[in-house]
Specification:
heterodimer, A: about 450 residues, alpha/beta, Rossmann fold, Ubiquitin-like (UB roll), six-stranded mixed beta sheet, globular, B: about 280 residues, Alpha-Beta Plaits, 2 domains, two-stranded antiparallel ribbon, about 30% helix
Amino acid sequence: MCAAHNRLADMKRKTFAGGIHPPDNKQWSAHLAIEDCPLPAELIVPLAQHIGAPSVPCVEVGQQVLKGQVVGSAKGFVSVPVHAPTSGEVLAVEKRPHPWGMALPAVVIRPDGEDRWSPELQPADPGELSPEQIVEKVRQAGVVGMGGAAFPAHVKMSPPPEKPIKTLIFNGVECEPYLTADHRMMLEEPERILQGVALLQYVLGVERVVIGIEANKPDAIALISEMCAGTPVEVISLEVKYPQGAEKQLINAVTGREVPSGGLPMDIGVAVHNVSTAAAVADAVVHGRPLIERVCTVTGPAIREPKNLRIRIGTLLSHLVDVCGGLAEEPGKIILGGPMMGFAQLGFDVPATRGTSGLLLLRHEDVDPQPEGPCIRCARCVQACPMNLLPTTIAAYARRSLSAEAAEYRAMDCIECGSCSYVCPSSIPLVQVIRFGKAAILAKKRKE
Amino acid sequence: MLAAVLSLGLIGMIAAVALGLAAKKFAVEVDPRELAALEVLPGANCGACGFPGCAGYAKALVAGTVDLNLCPPGGADVVTTLARILGVEASAAAREIAVVVCQGDNRRAQSRYRYVGLEDCTAAQRIAGGPKTCPGGCLGLGSCQRICPFDAIEMTADGLAVISREKCTGCRKCIAVCPRNVIRMTPYDATVHVLCNSHDKGAVVRKYCQVGCIGCHICQKTVPDAYQIDNFLASVVYEHSADADEAIAKCPTKCIRDFTAGYPEGSSLVPAVPGKPRAA
């Protein structure tokens, strides 16, 4: 094992061009084992938790539901059902505050404390299932990408026949600072992950399977490499750089190829799944269990005891804060996800969803915003941009509502990673301006 | 030296003659009325008439395909002059101006979060529905001020857009750019307005704004014809607004204002035609 590890370290690590090196701040929680979060008094399960059409509620107020029972059914292909995270009574089906910043429909469940599984959920022997049956099981279990974007997994598992997948990449990079949920998953539950890896490999019929892990997790690299020894699964150690875990950058680092502008990874025969998604796929297929819980890192300087928690979907953030010993001080910013691409929240009254990889609490002094200055043409944003764009030029056009020009400079290729805003010495909110410009381009397209 | 002067002079003369002939031969026939109409139009190219600029509108006017009263910036004078040029009868549309129906600046209305970023109301609105707790209140980042072609909008120090009654020409550009629909077109002659845009219930409004309409119906009880209440929000019925000012003193949250008595607090604008002084 040691020799293998050294060889990995000696190799020049793979990566992409551009990117930034923010302090990773993972020391707060990287060493802490995953703990089960106690059941809260009330679970608020949003019906919109994924990219695509929101689910439609299919339970009534007062109804008793069992753990894993469907409470919101999928609507359309790019949509997934939503399940009860525990057994209990449905208190309400109404609009509740949602992490997206508005009130959205949710099913409110009061747990009865018995945590009884629905008897309809049966384990299966994956060896006897056809690829189609496996995809259907994944869809029914409501598995979505768990890296944060929450794109339904079954869609990525059913590529059109003219675009066969040749390389399957598993994303164990976790390049967002502070977050350690995937890291702990790889250390504590590698069997589940590898079971899911094997299932996805079988479904997609791929030749090459790669697990990409950032080099700041040597223990996970060593463990997964050891467990994959003798199998066709390759473990690659990647340079520590943000946004190494972004889909297109990870593909570029692993395969050396670029996803064409405006295209999807499947256009070059690649599919990327998060390692935690692989574990959820294994649960769905082998145990018949839907995606009702996930690992979430509660961390940051404003929380008393940072933890890696296994939480039920629909747990309020206030409960997570209580479980982690409360606030050390009044937070300056509450972020769901990581500090680079996470979503700032108005308060603790919103629930965690399937995409909640972390709850980050920063102090006022950590988020002290600097006043915006003029662009000094230093081109640091150009160097940092992992998509090789000219952020300052696109932003200048977007600011003046010149969306045709912004589109010409490939504004739509921006992955909104925030590297440009991070490096800008004039504190120009580049990524916000570019997002604004992208929305204008889309609005114009819809009009035409 | 002499050769140079002569040869250049000669070239100049030949070119002048050629240009003169070309101007005659290739002259584009323009209806003199079109030029005259273009002369009369304000030339702001604001687009309120529905044409990209004044020239387009002038052309359509001469072609007779459009009405004469589509130019709000021009007002009544332009309509009469145009009617004279084109030799038709026309009456000016009643002058309309835009009013920001909100008084909740950053001092008097609460924010849900501190917004840092692009100084643009639409950009702020995209972030969890904007920083103002009130779902309808003015965001105060000045998108309307920047788009106004007539410099008619003032942003107060506490972040509230206020539109000058005299400078506003009614081109509606600010209405199109406002993400919160807090700017309304009103008849110029109506000077009393309910300055609130929140349909929330009174108890909710009170929590986030000191000057919001709480839907208490007192204004309607005082002057029944002049006010209507829709979903906890009062508004002036402009057709019957002659006595609307009688309710101003009764309003418990002071959200009704007569613009001839003064612009919203914090604004440096002063009424051009001061009305009779009123007890607040």
